[in-house]
Design brief:
globular, alpha/beta, EAL domain-containing protein, eight-stranded mixed barrel, about 20% strand, two-stranded antiparallel ribbon, about 280 residues
Length: about 280
Amino acid sequence: AKKMGRNNFQFYTPAMNEESLERVRIEGALRNALERNEFVLHYQPQVDLKTGQIVGMEALIRWKHPELGMVPPNRFIGIAEETGLIVQIGAWVLRTACAQNKAWQDAGLGRLRVAVNLSARQFGAADLIAGLESVLRDTALDPDCLEIELTESLFMSDVTPAVELLHRMKSLGVNLSIDDFGTGYSSLSYLSRFPIDVLKIDRSFVADITHDANDAAIVTSIIALAHNLKLAVIAEGVETLEQLDYLRSHGCDEMQGYFFSKPLAAEDFETLLRQRRAL
Ligand code: C2E
Ligand code: CA
Ligand code: CA
Ligand code: CA
């Protein structure tokens, strides 16, 4: 029996068996996916709220599985994390995103910044710094055009090695952001000690910003907190014009969300960049 909360026990059902079967299937397939070139990156624009310009993009992984079809990250990142495969997958993401950004810059499409998600396992890997260095060297991307997205969970356990590691990353010239800001359990004290550049307001706070006074208060407080600490702030999951107006009028620097664009395949992102430059 699987323990569910305090006094509830739930017995395995056929549905749960299928679920664990799918996990095993995914794990096996994940091991081959890199060699078979089954991963792709989609790019979601990040827009400056003052100028309306695209200033960057977040790289988001998808898995084009021959039988399962397009598998979203929520279905395999956790498994990749548990098995440690995320370290190799994450290295591929970093290299691909940097190479793509450099290619767009060389094509005259603008000096954009690409944001890449870093998992806890990657953060803990011994060759993190060497890996970053070699990708920056090989792709010749200006480190200032790379942003590494971290989550608060990375800072929860033993903070001292984390601070050191962040300073080493920072000394390479890359930007560091805190993803899903406000959803973690860590204390805010790390903000003054860690060399962070950007806070990303989690989309759960943005969703009801125009209807829920508490969410609005949280968002305006995060914006003020960021600016007082001399950090930039970007809102995630912006889906409506009302949300955008609210964020802009409260001084949020950038936004990312379906209102402007979903994450796009590289070709489509490039088309979007070319169209906007032609305006
Ligand atoms: P995340 O880092 O918080 O990424 C933002 C997610 O929100 C993306 O989901 C994006 O498609 C979605 N999103 C963007 N705008 C909107 C919006 O306006 N409304 C709504 N409802 N959703 C929006 P996606 O691509 O499915 O990724 C889910 C999560 O998977 C990511 O959350 C991230 O934690 C993880 N992930 C994705 N790519 C990678 C990767 O390369 N490495 C690692 N370690 N994790 C990744
Ligand atoms: Ca992210
Ligand atoms: Ca996020
Ligand atoms: Ca989120």
